[in-house]
Every structure is written in structure tokens, then in C-alpha cells.
Structure prediction request, 404 residues.
Amino acid sequence: MDSERHGRLDALQSDPYPHYERARDTEGLARIDEFDAWLVARDADVREVLRRPEDFSSANALVPDVLPSPAAFAVLGGGFGGRPVVVTADGDLHQRLRAPIVRGLSPSRVAAVLPYAAERVAALVDGFVKDGRVELMSAYARKLPGDVIGRIVGLDPVDVPAVVHGGHRAEELLFRPLAESEQVAAAEDVVAMQLILDRCVRERHAEPREDLCGELVVSLTGPGELTLDHRHELVAHLQNLLIAGHLTTTALIGTTVLHLLRHRDQWELLCAEPERIPAAVEEAARYDSALQGFRRVTTRPVTLAGTELPAGATVFVAFGGGNRDGARHPRPDTFDITRPPVRHLAFGHGVHSCPGSQLAREQLTLTLQELTSRLPGLRLADGQPVDMRPTMIHRSPQRLHLTW
Prediction:
């Protein structure tokens, strides 16, 4: 992608909401050149696409914005992965890959990890509460979700920082323009993460344990030998799961705190009435969704919103656009934690809905309970503008400087 087009893409992704509004006001579907796709931004149309996976395949859900250099590809060749993952799979393969994740993130498994999550929340806040200021993304939001999903997967806590770092580097490598030397360095970090995950897979196969890694190994390999192809598949699966499990929640923590503090009356209401925290979580997820959307590709000629699409057409299914659709959400551009609950699309819809949505909600709930009770005077630091990361898959502040 040339630098001019990437600049246009960054501008769109940094603030996609005006584009969504124009698309909703357009008869039929709007074409977005930066995405090389038709934009689906109305709530009803988004839901229709997600209800029809046989017509709208997920095969291109994670098409990268940037193609890594040959030197970076050479480094990646020394790692593991490169196999279908749940977010890009359809039909029976999707069900086979999704089933152990659903079991591993069951309500009982999530409930079992919450005491640990609460301990980590308190410990992380303890680390900065006396300082009077914090950059929340690096000191908190990029730490808690990795610790929690690492615990569920069964990672050695010593390995969690490298796995979290590798996840962020994988996103950079595929979605940010980097110099070749930096691409190679990012690829090396990704491979380091993959080697940790491969070690975890081999350990669980040799000595099964009741964690999510063990669940995946048993489900996808059966009782037989752990082959090299099994290892590639499991590492790809774990890498995708972990990135989804921590980057999205990291983003949601950042955007939620940002919008509560930008709407001071909402923050003060939450501090005075903490029973509103669950509603605040839902409103934050609706108002500025961490996962703005995914691509889909048509498997046959279809008509959507009156627009005729041939087989092989790409659509960008904008969850964030549907969540600002006034036909479903009155005053859609107003952040209001007191609004009556209406089901939103922040965690997807249909067969590809996020199996970790409850875990994300619980971490955000714990975060708001801790911050409102211990730091009611929290506010955005003066002279520190907030820039949003130019991405459609983990939308969040680049940095979030706070004081109290």
C-alpha cells in the first residue's frame, strides 16, 4: 500500500464515525476505496450479513493492511502457525475450532478466574495510586487482560509479558507501515511468542491439565501422536485466541475510561451510584466499539440493502457503524450510561459472536469498581491530547494520561 493511501486509511480508521453516517444516509451500500470494500453500516444490514455465513464467508476477515517484506517472511518461516483460525473459518471447520474455546470460556471457567482478576486489578492500581498520575494504557490496560487470559490458557506467568508483546507486534506487522528492519524485529517477537505457545502445547500433550490450552490440545488432536501439523494448527489457534483475548479488552478499558472522563457528569454519576457500572460497560462498548468490524466475502451473487453484489465481493461489516444507527439506538452519538438497554453489536452477532465477551465485561466491571472507589477524582491530564489508534480491530487511545 502506497503512503498516500495509507494516510487516507489512517485518517478513516482514526475516526470512522463520519464515514459510517454518510454510508447509512446513502441509498444501498457505499463503496469505500480505502477498504477496497462495500461498507455495511446500518444495524439491520450488519445483522443480516452476520446471520448469513453461508452467503458471506469469513475467509478474508483478517486481510492485512500491509504485506510484510520478504525478509520478515523469512523470519516468520521459523515459527509456527499459518493455519485457519476460528475468526477466518466457516461451516464445520469453524464449529470444530470454536467448540473448545466456548468450553474453555464457559461461565464457570470465567467465574473461577474472577478472584485472580480482582487481585490483579488491585495490585496494578496499587502500583500507581500514590503517584498522582498514570499513563493508563501501559501501566494497566495492556497488563490486566494478558494476565487474565494467560491464566485461563495455562501460560506460565513468566511467559505472559512476551506473549502479550508478541500479540501487539503481530498487529503492528500486519496493519502498520514499518521500515524493513522494524518488520524483521517485529517478526522475531512474533516467532518468540509462537515458540512459547508451542512449548505450552507440547507440555499439555505430554501432561494434560484442565486449562484452555489442555482443552484445545485434547479437542484438536485426540489421543494420538502430536504431529508437526497439529502443532502449527494449535499455535495458530492459540495465537488468535490470545490476541483476541487481550488486545480487544485492553482497547475496551481505554475507550471506556476515556469517554467516562470526557463526560464528567457520567463519571460522577458512576462514582455516586456504582450499581450503574454494568450499564456503563454496555454503553461504552456500544458507543466506541473496540472491534469496529470485520470483512466478509460473498460466496454467490447476493442483494444487500438493495445493492447487487457478485460472488467474490468484499464487504466491511461495521459493528461500530451499526452501534451508532439511530434506527436502533436513539441519540446514537450521545454517550449516556442511563439509556435503556438495547442489544448492541460490540461483541458481534450470530455464529461468530465473541465467546469471550463475558470475560471482557467482567474485567471492565472490576476496573470501574476499583477506579471509581479508589480514585473518584480521576481526570484527563491537561496538555496531553488523546489520539486514537488507527485500527478497526482494536480501537483505543494510543496513550491515556490521567491525574487525580
In short: The longest strand covers residues 293-298.
